[in-house]
Specification:
This protein is mainly alpha-helical and about 90 residues long. It has 4 helices and 2 strands, in the order αααββα. The chain has helices at about 10-35, 40-45, 50-60, 75-85; strands at about 65-70, 70-75. A two-stranded antiparallel sheet has the order 1-2. α1 (about 10-35) packs across α4. The chain is globular, with a radius of gyration of 12 Å. The N and C termini lie far apart (about 30 Å).
Length: about 90
Amino acid sequence: MSKHSRVPDTDDDFVKYKYILGEMGIQILIAISRGANSKVSIRLLSGVPPECITGRLPVLSSLDLIFQTQEEYYITERGNSFLVCIENE
């Protein structure tokens, strides 16, 4: 199993992520899921200030919700699962 296909044990993990990421982190993840893959396009689509984007991207990556290739960001399977989970709350 690749590191980008890891799935959390329970939805409780995702509930914790909501508090870790905050609203801005979630908006960044939604922007990436909609195709924004650079910091500029993430900012334009999410409306989140650049400083917050720079601070949240490493957190999203460490939680395996996104991955980075050079200067582009992409959502992981786990990131998509997280968004589905929070939409269903």
